[in-house]
């Protein structure tokens, strides 16, 4: 990425994986740059940015800098507000929970393995509902559909909340030891199941790619 900071062109890019955060930068005019690495993800990102600005300021002699901590806090609060309203945001036309249509089959019938040639296997099981930002996922008899997608370069967990008929809201997080009031590391997507002519689940669609809009990635039932 390219930015201008206090009159200097800065090339920079940030990144991270579960448990780690990084930021790299380079100022061509001063032939000065660096890489900052933190052993944390949520807290590591603002630390990496603050350290980057500290190094830049020492090099070019700037006395003031953006309020990174304040920006991060405001952004986190805004994100938590969105997470609390995910149902209405993702499914604005869905009926109230008490008026929703039930899914066609017992929840256990949706468990099993689903396959896509690019995204590989996803295995759905039944699990206890976790809480996100202090709000438990609504469940049926204390169980929800969930998937531990841990065999990837970016391991994650999918937790399914039933919305209406064959439509579900899926929360995804990158912690593998159970959800505990997640905030900035949570992603969300729409999901839908397709029942075949034989009365069994045939496909699962996941909104894995936000750039596709409402188009889902469809997985075939494999077992």
What does this protein structure show overall?
The protein has 223 residues and is of the alpha+beta class. The protein has two domains: 2-66; 99-221, Lipocalin (Beta Barrel). 17% of the residues lie in helices and 41% in strands. The strands form three sheets. Strands 5-6-9-10-11-13-14-15 form an eight-stranded antiparallel β-barrel. A four-stranded antiparallel beta sheet has the order 1-2-3-4, with helices on one face. The chain has a three-stranded mixed beta sheet with strand order 8-7-12, with no helix packed on it. 19% of the residues are buried.
Which tags fit this structure?
single chain, 223 residues, alpha+beta, Lipocalin, 2 domains, eight-stranded antiparallel barrel, four-stranded antiparallel sheet, 15 strands, elongated
């Amino acid at each position: 990425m390219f930015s201008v900071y206090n009159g200097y062109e800065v090339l920079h890019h940030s990144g991270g994986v579960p448990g780690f955060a990084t930021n790299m930068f380079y100022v061509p005019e001063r032939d000065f740059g660096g890489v900052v690495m933190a052993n944390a993800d949520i807290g590591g990102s603002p630390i990496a940015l603050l350290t980057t600005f500290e190094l830049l300021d020492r090099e070019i002699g700037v006395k003031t800098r953006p309020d990174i901590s304040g920006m991060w806090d405001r952004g986190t609060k805004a994100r938590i507000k969105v997470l609390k309203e995910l149902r209405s945001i993702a499914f604005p036309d869905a009926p109230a929970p008490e008026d929703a249509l039930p899914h066609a089959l017992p929840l256990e019938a949706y468990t099993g393995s689903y396959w896509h040639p690019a995204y590989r296997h996803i295995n759905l099981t039944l699990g206890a509902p976790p809480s996100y930002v202090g709000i438990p996922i609504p469940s049926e008899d204390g169980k929800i559909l969930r998937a531990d997608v841990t065999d990837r370069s970016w391991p994650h967990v999918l937790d399914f909340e039933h919305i209406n008929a064959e439509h579900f809201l899926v929360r995804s997080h990158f912690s593998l030891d159970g959800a505990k009031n997640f905030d900035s590391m949570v992603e969300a997507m729409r999901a839908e199941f397709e029942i075949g002519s034989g009365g069994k689940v045939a496909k699962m669609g996941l909104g894995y790619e936000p750039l596709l809009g409402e188009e889902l990635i469809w997985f075939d039932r494999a077992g």
